[in-house]
UniProtKB/TrEMBL annotation, chain B:
PANTHER family: FIXS PROTEIN
Chain spans, region Disordered: 30-52
Keywords from the UniProt entry: Membrane, Transmembrane, Transmembrane helix
Chain ranges passing through the membrane: 6-24
Species for this entry: Parasulfitobacter algicola
Upper lineage: Bacteria, Pseudomonadati, Pseudomonadota, Alphaproteobacteria, Rhodobacterales
Record has RNA-binding as a keyword: no
Protein's recorded name: Cbb3-type cytochrome oxidase assembly protein CcoS
InterPro entries cross-referenced by the UniProt entry: Cyt_oxidase_maturation_cbb3
A Pfam family that the UniProt record links to this protein: FixS
Highest taxon in the source lineage: Bacteria
């Protein structure tokens, strides 16, 4: 009885595809018309900003049907998990902020218009009427738009703390309150426009900050969603596709060649080779047969395997590795950002200054109304418009610049931490190397050995076979004519050639000596045997980035879980003096902690699960997009392209943005040094406050834009 | 100065229309794909009727 194949009973009629290479209007219309031409597609819509397509289709349509269509058009396409995406698609918090910003902008422009009339000399009843209209616009607007500040300030005060929002709230409320009182008493000065522009500029800073974080967050979640969590469960001889979260202990699970183990388990049937490089950093595939234990995250290479799950979900070795990460994480929170440092100095200072000027004027004149007016003016003038924009404007500009160079900044303070780095630690497999082998000794073999080897290798998806195929094809070799080709999973490929048996595979299977290097062996019955030696190919830019970092006086260290010989060889090739081989995840973590305890600021670049703890413990961390999701989640910056070169760009941009942030703080301080004495002396008019506030905010934003 | 009685409500009304238009565009997801929108105007394919 044959095995019946059932498609998953998953109810999504909506398929999401990631299209990383689209860039123009021709791409959009090509993709949309190709997808809409398919009979069971109802509607396809491309989003160029997010580089995604969303497709409404019949329930039986899956991404596997759509991806080949797009690949034929020349576009790379990956399935995204619609469930994960849907959670982030509508950014409610961002919309709410934008709405408040729009209302504040509308109101402040109208009130500013009315204020200009007052400033240019409206008198008596006319002035009072303008003030009353301003009040009618301002009070409801503040009640709606300034809510985020009120909420944060209240939360801080309830915990007995002070944050930036406390002086902001006080300034807005005092400005509105005293202005209302002045208006009721036909006073000359009302600060309604100041209260509104303050809200508007500060909301702009908040919105920029939120947008940077939201973009990074949705992109990071998109990377997670790239690995669609499904597995094939065998139930009474039927293969059923289920979500990984539905698997339980004792389930029989089918893992096809090229698939990743979804759970920890024991092999029940089938032989193959498994790639453990993500878990341990080992480059050599291991033989796997019945009773071999496998761990979640390992990749099955050659033959189909049936495994019995021994641990699922939280209990898998993959999740136990997360415990190490949690330990390392507690160290991470020690970092205080520049903005927090500034706020800590600033918030108490402003209150003391304003209280002192109130007390001083009251003792001097015993005029309560005037003293409160001056205290409010001091609060408005010192209010951190420029300070609130100083950091988000710079990080927005810097993240935008790095995103165009192919880096994704996931954490707001990553740039500040990156600017301090003096030691760079690299992982080997998958980070400095591509984790893909390359044939080194093609010149040592006779032409007909190569022809036979190519013909055998062509039929397999084993990484060594694929590397051999590519190298032989590049050298212009034509495959020999073979009969009866079949793959023996876990061992190699066998065939008949001119009535002789030929084999390509492991050393022990063809009766050859294995040796220390990564190799595949060709054996021809009644003939010679040949050894093909492979090395792991360097990632683009590995050589230049190591050299650039060393030239800039940074210490470069190589840490790998791979064997001594392989690590030493790579270290010599790249000119890295300090290297550690056969390091367990815990070793990497403790080594990084030692470095940090010795006052080093460490940048960790890694991709494997065995690097996750080290990535979290380091001052700042980078992982390539090809890394496992756990490593990407643990790191602050993700490299989207294949090359390592952007890292040096990131270091330069980080340096620049930190100096821009400090410049912005200086600009904001300078403006306060000039304006505060004027306010304390009682000379500040609403016009002066409006001018100073707008000027400083605009200077700070323009200074940040210089980064682009 | 009596002209202000008309002018101020008029300016507020016009500004309010702008604000309401903005709120409408945001509620109907018109800012989801700014890059795509700027490219789509170059496309030769358009619908005579918007899709339901």
């Amino acid at each position: 009885m044959g095995v019946q194949v059932h498609e998953a009973p998953i109810e999504d009629t909506r398929v999401m595809l990631s299209l990383p290479t689209i860039h123009c209007s021709a791409c959009i219309s090509k993709i949309e018309s190709a997808l809409n031409a398919m009979p069971n597609v109802h509607e396809a819509r491309v989003n160029l900003t997010l580089k995604r397509a969303s497709i409404e289709a019949d329930p039986d349509l899956t991404a596997a049907d759509l991806i080949p269509v797009l690949n034929d058009l020349g576009f790379e396409a990956h399935e995204l998990d619609a469930g994960t995406i849907a959670a982030t698609e509508t950014d409610k918090a961002g919309r709410a902020l934008l709405m408040r910003l729009a209302v504040a902008g509308f109101a402040s422009m109208n009130v500013m218009l009315l204020s200009v009339a007052v400033w240019s000399g409206a008198q008596d009843a006319t002035r009072d009427m303008f003030h009353w209209i301003s009040a009618a616009i301002t009070l409801p607007t503040i009640a709606f738009s300034a809510q985020p500040f009120f909420k944060n300030a209240w939360a801080a005060l309830r915990n007995g703390a002070l944050n930036m929002d406390v002086p902001i709230t006080l300034a807005i409320l005092l400005a509105a309150g005293t202005s209302l009182y002045e208006t009721a008493n036909s006073g000359h000065h009302a600060y309604f426009d100041a209260a509104l522009t303050l809200t508007f500029f500060l909301l702009a800073g908040r919105y920029l900050d939120h947008r940077t974080r939201a973009i990074a967050k949705s992109a990071a979640e998109e990377l997670v969603a790239l690995e669609v969590p499904r597995a094939i469960r065998i139930e009474r001889d039927n293969e059923i596709t289920v979500r990984v979260s539905e698997l339980t202990k004792g389930d029989m699970i089918m893992v096809r060649p090229g698939g990743r183990m979804p759970v920890d388990g024991v092999i029940v049937s089938g032989t193959s080779e498994i790639d453990r490089s993500f878990l341990t950093g080992e480059t050599l595939p291991l033989f796997a047969g019945p009773d071999t234990h496998v761990s979640a995250g390992e990749v099955n290479l050659t033959g189909p395997l049936t495994i019995r799950a021994t641990a699922v979900g939280e209990d898998t070795s993959l999740h136990r590795m997360a415990d190490l990460v949690a330990v390392a994480e507690s160290g991470r929170s020690r970092y205080t950002s520049l903005a927090d440092k500034a706020a800590k100095l600033y918030a108490p200072g402003v209150h003391i200054l304003s209280a002192l000027s109130f007390a001083g004027w009251y003792l001097f004149t015993f005029d309560l109304r005037m003293s409160i007016n001056i205290a409010a003016a001091v609060l408005i003038i010192t209010c951190p418009c420029a300070l609130g924009l100083a950091v988000p404007a710079v990080t927005t500009a810097a993240s935008g610049r790095l995103f165009r160079k192919g880096m994704l900044i996931k954490n707001g303070t990553a740039l500040e931490r990156l600017a301090k780095v003096d030691t760079v630690v690299f992982d080997k497999t998958g980070t400095l190397t591509q984790g893909a082998p390359q044939l080194t000794n093609i010149g040592d073999h006779s032409r007909h050995d190569l022809q036979v080897a190519l013909a055998l290798a062509e039929t397999s998806s084993h990484p060594l076979a694929m590397a051999l195929t590519q190298a032989a094809r590049d050298a212009g070799i034509k495959p020999a004519g073979l009969q009866n080709i079949h793959e023996v999973p876990g061992y190699g490929i066998e065939a008949r050639w001119q009535n002789r048996t030929v084999r390509l595979g492991r050393a022990s299977w063809v009766g050859a000596d294995a040796g220390a290097s990564t190799s595949a062996h060709l054996w021809i019955e009644d003939g010679n045997s040949a050894q093909f030696i492979f090395v792991d190919r360097l990632r683009d830019g590995a050589q230049s980035i190591v050299k650039a970092l060393q030239d800039n006086g940074k210490t470069v260290i190589l840490m790998s879980g791979d064997a001594n010989v392989a690590v030493e060889d790579l270290a010599n090739r790249l000119g890295i003096k300090d290297w550690i081989a056969e390091a367990l995840p815990g070793d990497k973590l403790s080594r990084i902690n030692d470095l940090i305890d010795n006052n080093a600021h460490v940048l960790m670049v890694g991709d494997g699960l065995n690097d996750t703890a080290a990535l979290t413990a380091a001052t700042v961390s980078i992982s390539p997009a090809s890394a496992l999701d756990a490593a990407r989640v643990a790191s602050d910056i993700v490299l989207l392209g294949k090359s390592l070169d952007p890292i040096s760009d990131a270091l330069i941009t980080a340096d620049k943005s930190v100096s821009r942030i400090k410049e912005n703080f200086r600009i904001a301080t300078l403006y306060n040094i000039i304006a505060v004495p004027i306010a304390i002396a009682g000379f500040a008019t609403p016009l002066a406050a409006a001018l100073a506030m707008s000027l400083s905010s605009i200077t700070v934003s323009l200074n940040a834009l210089r980064l682009k | 100065m009596n002209v202000l009685i008309y002018l101020i409500p008029a300016s507020l009304f016009l500004g309010g229309i702008g604000l309401i238009a903005f709120i409408y565009t945001m509620r109907s997801n018109q800012y989801d794909d700014p890059d795509g929108n700027s490219q789509r105007i170059l496309s030769d394919e358009w619908d005579d009727h918007p899709k339901p």
